[in-house]
Design goal:
Blueprint lengths: L1 E9 L3 H19 L2 E6 L4 H7 L5 H9 L2 E6 L14 H12 L3 E7 L20 E7 L9 E3 L6 E3 L5 H16 L4 E6 L5 H13 L7 E6 H10 L6 E4 L1 H14 L7 E5 L5 E5 L16 H13 L4 H16 L2 E2 L9 E2 L2 H13 L3
Parallel strand pairs: 1-2, 1-3, 3-12, 5-10, 8-9, 8-10, 13-14
Antiparallel strand pairs: 4-5, 4-11, 6-7, 11-12
Helix pairs in contact: 1-9, 1-11, 5-6, 7-8, 9-10, 10-11
The structure holds 3-isopropylmalic acid and magnesium ion (MG).
Amino acid sequence: MKARIALLPGDGIGPEICAQAVRVLETAAALGGHVFHLDSYPIGGASIDAHGEPLTKGTLGACQQADAVLLAAVGGPKWDDVDAAIRPERGLLALRKGLGVYANLRPCTIHPALTGACPLRPDLLTTPIDILMVRELTGDVYFGAHEQAADGESASDQMIYTAPEVRRVAQVAFRLAQGRGKRLCSVDKANVLAASRLWRRVVTDLAQEFPDVALTHMYVDNAAMQLVLRPSQFDVVVTGNLFGDILSDESAAIAGSLGMMPSASLGDGKQGLYEPIHGSAPDIAGQNLANPLGTILSVALLLRHSLGLADEAAAVERAVSHALDAGFRTGDIYSAGYRRVTCTGMGDAVIEALKGGA
Ligand code: IPM
Ligand code: MG
């Protein structure tokens, strides 16, 4: 097949991990006889430096034309003035909005070779953890009005959800639950927030269309606690943008390394935005130390969800497992007795496994 993929390497470790993901994409294309057109565009701080804004019309337009978008990471100390009007993160938010990718899928599983990296007590892991977090991505307090009083003494952010916004992301979550453990936990703060009460009503109404899925509701504070007390109770979790931001970092920490976690952001069509959930790690940028596996696993999600290449996606995931089983570890997941590798070294290990038909 032919596909056009827009690459957004971004900032910090972004270009390094993106380069490894590109090698994996090229290998998958060669093995499967596919032609992938890969073009890079600046985003975030790199775009601020080059064009004075974190997402140009040109980059957004190219992404909208592509079959899929692969983004590595944005942000860094150079652009980190929280009062600045122009920040790298704004490019990411504008991209998500501009692509209409309202459902952000963040899986949380512990790779068998990495159970030692999970900070929870081993007895909490006797039942396997396999959570799929579905975070609403283009609404909530992220996209409501952000205001600051002229005297600098007050500020507000509007948390707003419309019923159609809740319905469409809940629909995605129900469908995903149907395809796996048939349990959906909707997380909100309906005991305090009007937007959450709307959220709960819409999700509850929609449940009638999915009688085979067991729906539960949980307040976000309790969900944060339950995730560390008994993570294996969760199957699919659906929640708003802000709660999902926080809970997905928590679940990534449970999985052992932020560096391992991929994500897919989907809208109504096949097009999607794929990114690791970690940031740009400026402290190790440019040193060939970063873990490229979150981005490589995002490539697998891209192959599966946007290009319909399920076999190729599974092959990439198996290659990653193979590299881990063979003992290769970047610094973030290294422990004594394993083979410490660089970012490119991990790329080599995955590609070798992929070519070897792991
Ligand atoms: C994430 C990040 C972003 C978010 C930031 C960089 C704006 O934390 O993708 O989780 O809050 O969505
Ligand atoms: Mg986050």
